[in-house]
Amino acid sequence: MTDRYASFVQSAAGRALVKRLGLPDPPRLRRHQPGDPLLRGPALLGAATGGRLTEPIVKILTAAGVELRDTGTAGPQDRFGALVYDATGITDSTELRQLYDFFHPQARAVLPSGRVIVLGTPPRECATPREATAQRALEGLVRSIGKEFGRGTTAQLVYVSGDAADDPAHSAGTITSLESTIRFLLSGRSAYVSGQVIRVGGGAASVPADWDLPLDGQVVLVTGAARGIGAALAKVLARDGAKVVALDIPAAGDALAAVANDIGGTAVQLDLTAPDAPTRLAEHLASRHGRVDVVVHNAGITRDKTLGRMDADRWDQVIDVNLSSQERINDVLLERELIPAGGRIISVSSIAGIAGNRGQTNYATSKAGVIGLVDSLAPALRERGISVNAVAPGFIETRLTARIPLVVREAGRRMNSLAQGGLPVDVAETIGWLAWPASGAVSGNVVRVCGQSLLGA
Ligand code: NAD
Q1: Which residues, including other chains, have CB under 8 Å from residue 263's CB and lie 6 or more apart?
Q2: Model pTM score
Q3: pLDDT of 63-103, one tens digit each?
Q4: CA 85 to chain centre
Q5: Cα(317)–Cα(264) distance, rounded to whole angstroms?
Q6: Domain containing 228 — which CATH number?
Q7: Which atom in ligand 1 lies closest to the alpha carbon of residue 396?
Q8: Which of 200, 232, 255 is the last residue of a domain?
Q9: Same domain, 43 and 184
Q10: Closest CA to 365 of 330, 404, 321
Q11: Burial class (CB in 10 A: 0-12, 13-18, 19+), 254
Q12: What digits encode the pLDDT tens for the residues 243-269?
């Protein structure tokens, strides 16, 4: 589905009209192409006094080929691809002024599709209530910058646990834990992710030999892969080096085969709600690959009706496909130890699961349940070295959203900081990052891919 309004505002006539009438102005977003540099311009780096992450971040950015500037050397005419600020040194609300001093002069210095990243300490790990208060305050700054800077700029807060550095005398642990997240957030892969709080902990992460093939050799299962977000996922994961096992219902067999052939993957026709689906899937993965490194639970359905008009079938089907089938499959794959240490479980939730939605009690219940699954399973699987995360898409341009009536659809598209719907590839790139072996320190997160939607914010 195309967003005709977004195309129109890129034309000369469209630009003039948008300016004159003050209409929404969706920018053209920078999206990742293999071989692209992480940023279109230098990164300006700042740090509060006593920040603990400055050294690791300099190393990460330098290794990624990012040109670095600091406030001492930057001139008033300079423009930046990113502003990166280490706020871990802030231990009291009176020290928040350092954020103003860094960001205020740069508010107009960020290039289109620029990036703002603030690094903090998780409030529950802070030594004093005052430090925890000040660290929590960072969220308000970051979310507001996401709404203010415009022109496709995104802003995120990354809370980096002390556990991310396994040896406190050595910053190498922090660098390895943090590197994949910094690379993802700076790159065009995170085009539609904004206003997020991401937590990086102490799980094991391994750096790839080639950052253009971050999933090299990984066996990845994608459910619901015949079309929409799942088809985009299969493509992105295969591009990044994965062997993709694409699964969908038998009725979607032709489309599924086309997706699998296109990427050199394999196709599995299976209805996830069939009683024997988990064992059949486990047997397929065991006999073909001996394991599955990454499980992406993407298959999902909607059966919308207001609660009073909803029959029990609509309720049951949605809960079963979107939530219970994920639990049954996880149980069998984990019990048979088919997901090895370093494995990943990634589920697709929705902002409807965060905000609720009229006419979607069944869907929102299932998608909130997916968040519960992440909350409960991530700590339980930490010992086994398996990470569990979810993405929560907002308005994504697919067949699912094409069915929404025009006026509601147009409102859904524009009610976010980027004034446009996301593309399936935006969800796929975010899941890709969570799947990388380099992202082992990211677990228990629910990352919204919603352009900082106003819903559930
Ligand atoms: P889609 O309808 O285009 O694709 C879903 C796929 O899942 C289909 O190919 C379908 O055949 C498959 N599927 C359904 N039931 C299945 C079953 N029982 N067994 C196996 N496969 C089954 O939807 P989409 O827009 O690509 O959505 C993908 C995921 O993203 C879903 O979980 C959806 O809830 C979620 N999501 C989408 C949006 C959006 O804006 N499109 C927003 C939030 C969340």
Answers
A1: 234, 235, 238, 239, 244, 246
A2: 0.96
A3: 999 999 999 888 889 999 999 999 999 999 999 999 999 99
A4: 20
A5: 32
A6: 3.40.50.720
A7: 40
A8: 200
A9: yes
A10: 321
A11: exposed
A12: 999 999 999 999 999 999 999 999 999
Q: In terms of domains, do 66 and 189 share one? A: yes
Residue 203 and residue 438: Cα distance in Å, rounded?
10
Query: Is 181 in contact with 61 (CB distance < 8 Å)?
Result: no
Select which of 85, 159, 192, 363 is catalytic. 363
Domain shared by 182 and 238, yes or no: no
Asked if the structure places residue 290 within a domain, the reply is: yes
Find the 433 Cα to ligand 1 centroid distance in Å.
Answer: 20
- Give residue 383's domain range: 219-449
Go through the chain and tell me how many residues it has: 457
Residue nearest (by alpha carbon) to ligand 1 atom 44? 350
Ligand 1, CB within 6 Å, residue ranges: 223-224, 226-230, 248-249, 252, 271-273, 298-301, 321, 348, 350, 393, 395-396, 398-401
- Looking at 200, 232, 249, which one is the last position of a domain? 200
- Strands 387-393 and 68-70 turn out to be unpaired
Told to judge if 159 belongs to the known catalytic residues of this protein, a careful annotator would answer no
Domain-embedded: residue 93? yes
Are 290 and 377 in a shared domain? yes
How many separate domains does the chain show? 2
